[in-house]
Specification:
CATH class of the domain at 2-144 and 622-703: Alpha Beta
CATH architecture of the domain at 2-144 and 622-703: 3-Layer(aba) Sandwich
Helix content: 55-70%
Largest sheet: 6 strands, antiparallel
Structural class: alpha/beta
Low-confidence stretches: none
Distance between the termini: 44 Å
Mean pLDDT: 79
Shape: elongated
Strand content: 5-15%
Radius of gyration: 63 Å
CATH topology of the domain at 2-144 and 622-703: Rossmann fold
Order of helices and strands: EEEHEEEEHHEHHHHHHHHHEEHHEHEHEE
CATH superfamily of the domain at 2-144 and 622-703: P-loop containing nucleotide triphosphate hydrolases
Oligomer: single chain
Amino acid sequence: MRLASLNISGFRAFPSDYYFDLDADAVILSGSNGTGKTSLLDAVLWALTGSLGRFGKKSAQIVSLYAPSGTARVSLRIKGSTDANVVEVTRQFDGNKATFLVSTGGKRAEGLEAERLLLEHLWPEGLIAPDVSTTLHTALTRSVYLQQDLVRQFLESDSDDARFNVVGELVGAGRITEFQQELESSRNAWSRGGGELDRRVESLREEVDRLHSRVNSLAPLDSASSIETTKNRWFSWWSEACKVAALGDAPPFYPSRAMTTLTAALQGLQAERRSLQRQIEDALALAAEFRDVPENLSAVTARRDSLKVKVDGLTLDVSKARDSLRQSEAAAAAQREAWLRMKELNDDLAALATVALRHLGDKCPVCQQSYDREATLAHLHLLTREATTVSKSVGPPTPPSDLSRQLSEAEAALTSAATELRDLQALIGRHERWLESLPPRLQQLGLVNASGVDDLEQLVGVYTTNINLIGDLYRRGEALSLQLARVSEQDQRSELTKALAGAESSFAAAELEASEHQRTGRTATTILEATRDAVGDVVEEQIRQIEPIVERIYARIDPHRAFKEVILSSRYKGGRGRLSALVRDPLAPFGEQDPHPVFSSSQLNALAVALFLGLNLGVPSIPLKAALLDDPLQSLDDVNLLGLLDTLRRTKETRQLLVSTHDDQLARLMEIKLRPVGNHGRTIRIHFQEWSHSGPRIEVSEIPTVAEELKVVIAA
């Protein structure tokens, strides 16, 4: 199948509708960088696979920013040897949703069915691949489409095993490789399962040894009479125990479980004994409280009532005494105030009289008038004496002391009566609360109507008897427990003997299963090794056929003056097929070399182009009988260009060529090298002149044919 035509709209550099006639032996794409050459070649890859590997997950970038519809659409027509065998592929993407249509021979399919229909016509070998799109993308980018920025990807980015798998896929060994990988994965999982099975066998062996040891450590089986005797003692003990303690009905006798059941029963007896002991303590405490109850509670109540009356009377007396005392104190205060005023007046008159006596003369010292001096002196002396008499008096009156005494006596009597009343009320309150708590306490002890201490002491006697019975039952139960231990050991030996037989049977079955598992693993390894040999032989045979083609192309390009030979080395390592491209200097004593340390970047590019064209021409079945090279000449030195162009001229005879270049001179040189010769063939040049928001401006020209191929003859 080869390319016939291409319609592009809204895809990368083509925002509007473009149609390209590709039905030619060689199509030369020329123009400056960024005008759309790579977008045209990418459109072919995207139409067939739905992805552009170098974009990764950023698939939305394929939609042109200037597309009016916001949708990328590519329609590709490919055809076979006849015009009737035409397949039209249409892929569309709006940034979220993608559609894929394939139509041929009146058939039309969509989605997964379209992928199947495309591969039926394009590359039937890929139909059984687990991931059809990825497998087809890898095949195209390694043997059909050499992308501009990925010239050395096959040589550098791909690992040794990835290169081997690519060649295996192209020569039809991909499914065998996948089968080999699945078989290896299954074998590894099977081996891990074998390890788990071995651990299970070892675990069963340890279990058998452990059971053997336990059986040998137990006493031999005794006669059935001891078991029967123990059974009779069992039911006898339980019959008595159920009468004394709430243990439920007697359980059936199972030697293997009897010890556990009896242990639980003994614990229940101990709990019952502790409960009875607490009941006895509560009964004795309640009996002591009965004894503390006052004998004549009615007399206490009457005394309380009389004290209430007495306290009320004393409270009134204290109030009256306080009122009398306050009145007496008020009268005494008034008398004292009058006395103080009189004393102050006498003191002032006495002071004046004393001063006047010192200054009296013939005339009054104040008004200078004549006066009766004798009478005045007598009066002044009188005033002085009266003041002295008042100063020497007893002082102001005080309240009568008998009123204070009466108040103190009344308060003391009231305090005494109130204290006695409070004590009696507390006593009566405690008794009332005790009477309220008595019914539930009696009910807890199992007494509904208890008359007093006698009933409680009788109850204590019953509980004490039960405690003694429980103690006897407990001792007998411990003796029964020892006998059960012996019987249980015999029963345990019987059970262990059965378990040992089962474990030995499981161990034998597991050993057989492990042996069969190992045999299956060895068979899988044999098949895996045979599969590896088969894949290796197929790939090796194909590599031997590709290698001379690569060498011829490499020799025409001639990138290195010393390393003239290319060797494709395939091998198996770590369970994976590996393919390496090595170079050799035929005149040097050393062998093959990795080209990366000894080649320049341009020389590596030349080697990569040679490998790509070798795969394209040497593999018998590739998806398209075409070679798409995106500006490979810019990766080479000028000295290698003519060799590559000569190789492309020869390639044109068996492969449809689509070659792009940014160099106009090289484009014209390709027109000469790739022009059709004779009456058949066709060569087209698509020139991308400039790019604008509406897309590139394109000029298409068809290269005229020449009558015959020019040949250069060197004279001998």
